[in-house]
Write a structure and sequence with these properties.
Layout lengths: L2 E10 L1 H8 L7 H10 L14 E11 L5 E7 L6 H13 L4 E4 L2 H16 L4 H6 L10 E3 H5 L10 H8 L13 H6 L3 H25 L5 H10 L1 H8 L7
Parallel strand pairs: 1-4, 4-5
Antiparallel strand pairs: 1-2, 2-3
Length: 244
Amino acid sequence: MAFAVFDIETRIDKRLLNQVFFPRDNLSDEEAYERFRQDPRNRSGDFMPLTLHLPIAIVIGEVGDDYVLRSVDNLPMADYSEENLVRAFWHRLESFDGVLVSFNGRGFDLPVLELAALRYGISAPRYFASDSRRNRESEDHLDLYDYLTNCGVTGLRGGMNLLLKMIGMDGKTDLDGSKVQPYFEAGRLDEIRRYCRADVIRTYALLLRVELMRGRIDEATYRAVCAASAPFIREIEAQPSGKS
């Protein structure tokens, strides 16, 4: 069975925020955003409600049934726009018969992408009609965060950064999800795409360790697959590590 490891990065739709939450306050979009953001009732830490998130970067890693990482692609391959980005994802997913792999994809990435499909009028009948990848019991989507927290029964303080260091890898870089918005507004989209790409490779590394835990691969296969995928792993090892 092939795998598709995916991750997204998002911006806040400030115009929509202003229209919905401050329709009669005569605020600019930026003023509405700052007022909303500063009210602790509207946030979980630095995190804004996912209904206001819009994808600006999507990366998919193709993994063969031998568990070797074959490619890591930024979507779309040409004619970038936020709408084309989302359309490229759903077009690719509709023709994919393997297992989706994510880190908190059930809690964030897929709900955001589903709302984006609603926004742009995108048809994805295989996904939405069957509900197979939306069902926690389905084997068509392996959410590593969901798996490692026993479907949310336990917490995971430290997140992916902690898990990577736990298994002897470098952690995340200083760029994290809370900084994507200012990076986007500064025109640093290429850096966001590189960060998203690195997170897909990190998620793939966690996938291998989880599959070893589950007995889906043995130790010899694990070592061989890590060696075969080493060029990708070296990408993230060459980046500056995040702070503990």
